[in-house]
Amino acid sequence: TDSTILGKVYRGNILVKLGKFDDWYSVDYKGNTGFVKGDYVTLLQDGTTSSTTTTNTTNTTTNDEPKVFFHSRKDLAAVPLAPQNQLSPDGQDKYGKVAVKTWNNYGNLVSVIAKELGIDVEIALAVICVESGGNGFGSDGKMLIRFENHVFHTYFGSKSEEKQKIFDEHFTFDTKKRRDNHKYRANKSDDWQTSHTGQAAEWEAFEIARQIAETEAMYSISMGAPQVMGFNFKMIGYNSVQEMFSAFSKDIRYHIMALFDFCNANGTRLQYLLTRDFLSFAKAYNGLTAPEAYEQRLNQYYEIYKNLLNNRLLA
């Protein structure tokens, strides 16, 4: 209790458990190792941890009725993705063109759900632009992913000496700064390849991990336009990470809905969007990796959309 406080976690947050020391849990906190008092933690079956109110915030409503997630609603399945009032990219810089493309592709569905939650549509669109440039799939048709070595280690490599040995043959990362120096290789005799150099590298690393342990590999990727981690599948209403992966691989519509389901599952994330507290949202959604830069990009796209949409009503 005399140690430096790394940050705060809130009711409904899900954390990755690394170990247990007396009545404290060590957890992965924004790529660093932190400690949470066990009195405030409930263990989930998949090995993640959350606060004691996670069941209410992720799986049920306050009146104990089953929560209906956006991706499972039949009324939203029939809502067109694209708006009738298309915008022109003429005269826009590269950021404006990303904003126009995102609106033209998904603006109608985003507007409908944002209105239901009370969020400015400009804010919801800005998050999509910052997370993925408005894209959910690459030019090859594959879903955009990011494979995180340190997360795969948590779910697979750290579970036994045998699994650690297998992990070490194929993956490595900085154990002190867990998000840094990610590398991978298909075989022990191969040279190490640097991770996060493009989608080809992400998929190569993921497919190697997938051959070792499919579920744990899927836990370890962020998926699609909103870049939601696979281990959050329960939080956004899927029965398994495979179900989430399959839905995301088929249709961008599930990406859009996942953004709102993810924010709606945690009251603080939604509140930050409602109040336009972009810095706090950046920390809650994307971690402590350069939150100021994330905030700046959110503000940038928010201002672009305010200018582009000019308070026009949904057609």
Order of H and E elements: EEEEEHHHHEHHEEEHHEEHHHHH
Q: What is the overall shape? A: globular
Unreliable segments of 5+ consecutive residues: 46-64
Cα distance spanning the termini: 55 Å
Tell me what you see in this structure.
The protein is of the alpha+beta class and 315 residues long. Helices cover 45% and strands 13% of the residues. It is built from 13 helices and 11 strands. It has helices at residues 54-58, 74-77, 94-117, 121-132, 149-155, 161-170, 199-212, 214-219, 241-250, 252-264, 267-274, 278-286, 291-309, and strands spanning 14-21, 24-29, 32-37, 41-43, 48-51, 145-147, 171-172, 183-184, 193-194, 221-223, 228-229. The chain has a 5-stranded antiparallel β-sheet with strand order 3-2-1-5-4, with no helix packed on it. Strands 6-10-11 form a 3-stranded antiparallel β-sheet. A 3-stranded antiparallel β-sheet has the order 7-8-9. A hairpin with an 8-residue loop joins strand 8 and strand 9. The longest helix is centred in the middle third of the chain and has 24 residues, at 94-117. It starts with 13 loop residues before the first strand and ends in a 6-residue tail after the last helix.
Quick structural summary:
With 315 residues, this protein is an alpha+beta fold.
Topology:
Layout: E1 14-21, E2 24-29, E3 32-37, E4 41-43, E5 48-51, H1 54-58, H2 74-77, H3 94-117, H4 121-132, E6 145-147, H5 149-155, H6 161-170, E7 171-172, E8 183-184, E9 193-194, H7 199-212, H8 214-219, E10 221-223, E11 228-229, H9 241-250, H10 252-264, H11 267-274, H12 278-286, H13 291-309
Antiparallel strand pairs: 1-2, 1-5, 2-3, 4-5, 6-10, 7-8, 8-9, 10-11
Helix pairs in contact: 3-4, 3-10, 3-13, 4-13, 9-10, 11-12, 12-13
